[in-house]
Amino acid sequence: MWKSWTVLAVALGLSMWQAGPVMAGSTCGARGQASVVATGNPGQQAATQGTIVQVAQQAGQFKTLVQAVQAAGLVDVLSGPGPFTVFAPTDEAFAALPKGTLESLLKPENRDRLRAILTYHVVPGRVTSKDLKAGPLKTVQGQLLTVNLMGQPQVDNARIIRTDIPASNGVIHVIDRVVLPK
């Protein structure tokens, strides 16, 4: 049961960071690890931080992402040692998918397809905004995301709207679209 809440919390935490200021402080995650509460300033954080899942739990605009991560069985992966870089779509990004797409993906018989889509949003290693370079990035799913740094930074066709949300096992970048593997 805590896994479901963990994923939800991850999604919620990411959206609060993207949405604006949040009161600074720390909380204890499901596994007893301290986690960060963002202050609203990208370089400023509380003294401790948790996993990607725990940090995301403290956000607010990632309910759909959390639901999808749960349905795909990826909670333990994103709570694992990593490090990982997650390009996390907002609820609005999921809402922009063609009608019926999300509902179809969340069905148990489509779990493998959903897993492929979600792991396409994850890159092994800790890739901060300073580390991003134009060109391909190999995803956990196995295909390449294309990074474009001309103008507004993008991965594939998604704008990166918030960067460098730290976690003990990686970093989160918020994107405005769901990106799909080829």
Tell me about this structure:
The structure is a single chain. The chain is an alpha+beta fold and 182 residues long. The protein has a single domain (2-175), classed as FAS1 domain (Roll), CATH 2.30.180.10. The protein is 32% helix and 24% strand. It is built from 7 helices and 9 strands, in the order αββαααβαααββββββ. The chain has helices at 2-19, 52-57, 63-72, 75-79, 91-95, 101-105, 111-119, and strands spanning 25-28, 34-37, 84-89, 122-124, 135-138, 144-148, 154-155, 158-167, 170-175. The chain has a 7-stranded mixed sheet. A two-stranded antiparallel sheet has the order 1-2. A hairpin with a 2-residue loop joins strand 8 (158-167) and strand 9. The longest helix has 18 residues, at 2-19.
Characteristics:
seven-stranded mixed β-sheet; 9 strands; globular; single chain; disordered N terminus; FAS1 domain; alpha+beta; two-stranded antiparallel sheet; 182 residues; 24% strand
- Total of DSSP H or I helical runs spanning 4+ residues: 7
Strand order of the largest sheet: 4-3-9-8-7-6-5
Examine the coordinates and then state which fold CATH places here, giving the name of the CATH topology: FAS1 domain
Q: H/E element string?
A: HEEHHHEHHHEEEEEE
CATH first level: Mainly Beta
N-to-C CA distance: 34 Å
Helix content range: 25-40%
Strand content bin: 15-25%
Q: Work out the number of β strands.
A: 9
Low-confidence stretches: 1-48
Sum up the overall morphology in one term: globular
CATH superfamily: FAS1 domain
Largest sheet: 7 strands, mixed
Rg, alpha carbons: 15 Å
Q: What structural category do the secondary elements indicate?
A: alpha+beta
Task: Let me know the average pLDDT.
Answer: 77
CATH architecture: Roll
Question: What is the count of distinct domains?
Answer: 1
